[in-house]
Amino acid sequence: MKVYFISTFPTNGCGISEYSLNIINELKSQGINIISRKSNFLKSKNPFNLLIYFLEIILKKPDIVHIQYTPSSVGIFFPLFMILMKLFANSKVVITSHEKPESYLKHLDAPILKKLFLAYEKISLKFADIVLVHTDEHFEKLLKYYGLKNIQKIHFPIPTPQKTKDGIKHILKHYGLDNIPCDTILFLGAIRPNKGLEYLIDAAVILKNKGINYKIIVVGGIPKTSKNYFKELLGKINEYGLMDYFKILGYVPDKDLPAIFAISDIGVLPYTEITQSQTLHQMIAYKIPVVVTNVGGIKDIVKPNNIGIIVKKKDPGNLAEGIFTLLNNKNNILTFKKNLEKLNDAFSSKKIAEEHVSLYKKLLNEGK
């Protein structure tokens, strides 16, 4: 079976990139012939790039074309690409949709713009043979807005934990993390306004006033659009006298992350909005109990599987309480870790890749 895989490459700290490479590696290990262009799809928003994809698909004749989709990544000409695929390509098309419509609608004030966006996405998705989503909420949203009958839910894969090649002690020393005599709290992911770091800083003040000894490690790249936001965060940390409580590392290569996971007592995801989170699944992979806000698909994973504490979004007091409760209840942490182990087994990358292969085969058999 030949699968033409369209996503963002190479890995650049983007969650979709991490997700894609994880799935691709597992599919290859199961004998699937993967074709992918090593370009950064997220930066390719012109019709010529989509034309190159289309021409390659026509020439290489893959059985399946699998697209990792967000409107901001594929650009305004994507509906045209999908129409061309429907008219001229013999490949089956699978789209994995990573963001809810509301993620874009909230930024559009004029009713006409909202209507245009909904029309754009409906065309983009309806010409796919299957649209995959990771949460019940996302499924219901696509059903509500577009009435699609080609939606299926598939679980977000939990990545396989990696071993560091350079030695944990060496890596920790490089980042100044080799001698932390307190509890460590990990924030991981690109630094954007929807990640809620300002509320984590406010919660850090409350924890400091309680006399809690801790260190918050912040790992994540800073997109150009978030540079002012990042400056504001640094200003708050300095203003509140929290310099000794935060260790901001910026972007850290994947090969070094296992060392940081190894010293993290808990993870925190103080998001104000999210559909799904690669970061959460990385923490699950490394068996790190979490404190998360009640948004998107993350709450639907944490609560039923009992792997952490859920708090209100945009509520520093509740966030501080959740962190304090988790750090000070070792029995809870042990319970969460056992549940994290079970979750790793249930939704491993290997099992989710097997589900993809079954889906591909079923799709191809339907055409016979």
TrEMBL record:
Domain Glycosyl transferase family: 184-339
Keywords for the protein's UniProt record, in alphabetical order: Transferase
InterPro entries in alphabetical order: Glyco_trans_1, Glyco_trans_4-like_N
Keyword presence, Cell membrane: no
Domain Glycosyltransferase subfamily 4-like N-terminal: from-to ranges: 52-155
Name of the protein described by the UniProt record: Glycosyl transferase group 1
Top-level taxon in the UniProt lineage: Archaea
Keyword Transferase appears in the UniProt entry: yes
Alphabetized Gene3D superfamilies for the sequence: Glycogen Phosphorylase B
Organism of provenance: Methanothermococcus okinawensis (strain DSM 14208 / JCM 11175 / IH1)
One Pfam family, short name: Glycos_transf_1
Positions in coiled-coil regions: none
Record GO terms (molecular function): glycosyltransferase activity
